[in-house]
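Please go through the sequence and fold tokens given here and tell me how the chain folds. Record follows.
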Amino acid sequence: MVVCGSDRTMLRVITELVSSGEHVTAVVNPASRHFERISELGAQVLGVRVVSESVLRRAGIDSAAGKPSAARALVLLDADDVHNVHTALTARDMDPNLKIVIQMVNPRLGGQLHNLLGDCVVISGPSLAAPAFVADALEDDELTWFEVGGRRLVAGPAKLIQAPHLTVLADTTSSATPELLPSASADPAGDIVVGTGLRNIWRTKDVRRAGWLMATRDVIDRRVRIIAGVMAGLILTGTALTHWIAHVEWLRALYLAAGAVTSAGIEDNTFSNAKPWAKVAAVVVQLTGIVLMALLTAVIVDSLIGARLSRVIGGVRGRPRNHVIVCGLGTVGARVLEILNERGVAVVGVEHDDDAPGVQTAHRLRIPVVIGDSSNEETLRLAGVQRADSVLAITNGDITNLESAMVVRELNPTARITMRMFDHDLAQRVERQLELGHSRSVSMLVAPAVAAAVANRRSQATVPAGRRVLLLTEVTVERDSVAVGRRLGELDEAGGLRVLARQDNGDWDWDPAFDRTLKAGSRLAVAGTRSGLARLLLATRAPHRSGPSERIGL
């Protein structure tokens, strides 16, 4: 296996692969702070700054003369999507049959990779990790998020899943024994279903963004109010003196005084015959007004530039309650915001960099964002931490997340706290000794999925139904198996197995024709019991393959 990258996920992936007995060649930038740690994991290390064709050939990727490469898989874990795609295209030219697993930050680009690379596996770290953080924030132990058949799905109680439901998994209300996978032909009713999203039943009072009214209040700060007050005083004084000295009616006197103070440049002959001292006073007033107008303009411009208008408009209005605070709006934080917004949860973001991906996502979804350091008490107070239900500290820094959690616990002892921490030992000690809540690592959530894709192990989700469980996974029809030539509908087994989708040439069909015959290479997304899935594997595996019990943990 050839693994390219230099971040924390690479450490976890190499650990997974080496522990499972794989021979791993790691291509790492020697400037990476994880370089020495990677070299200690038991992998062969190539220290290079740029991954080129010659580097890939040294790592064992080359199918010259029609022979397969020494490497049977390439894993690309660089944080730069463009760099990953470039390396993948180079490797595909070198070996058209090489298995490629690529981590992508941009989900849209990832969805188009099959057109560029053909057979490849795309892993999205934020998409894999975000549901786990959301589940911690909302205590959603009833829901199971998983990816099967090229779609991100959720299984759980029907009252929580958004209609229309893709399929009914079980009915646990009719009797003490749950009815699993009831017949689809009868439009079955059930309380455990699969869908693509959740109903907005968690919605509390929305947290409102500051908007233009609050932005105007913040821009008109103390300096602006002082200058405006001085100008108003000059106008009133000038109005009174003009009225009494020049014997001008009040409205016209106000007009003249305001024009002089604001430097409007209004021509008037009222003072042409006035005494010299009155003319001098008028000039002094006008000069003072010019200075004040310049100061006022400078202060307002400084406020707008210093605060960034988008930041001011996007702040929090009022005193939010029962909401979730997301500290750290990187790629993972952006996906967390999207999921919480889909579920109708009131949420506030906290981020120190107003150019972070999650800040743009928050503006698009009209979610309030507080720009500042999440470990700062005042920043968290602006986000309403004293009245929040849950806080997710998911910045890229373990120490920042730890400091944020400690401040949150001090300000709100009842809030649920989840920290993103890479250091496993530190996370365990923090949870045990400081009692600051749960901790999760994005790399530990992503690494098993990458290792499973590299080793061609089938990923599966387990959904509880009463005291029983159902498995949702993908199965490939192998050449020479007994399933080849059979109709798709023959595989369905009431109470044991249900075919959800079929893939023959690239795209998944979630409304397959059950009278069509199966062919070698067809891939099926299925839901079934352990025994039902075991029978399916017996039918779809080649005669020389090992028994299905090894593959599904029976």
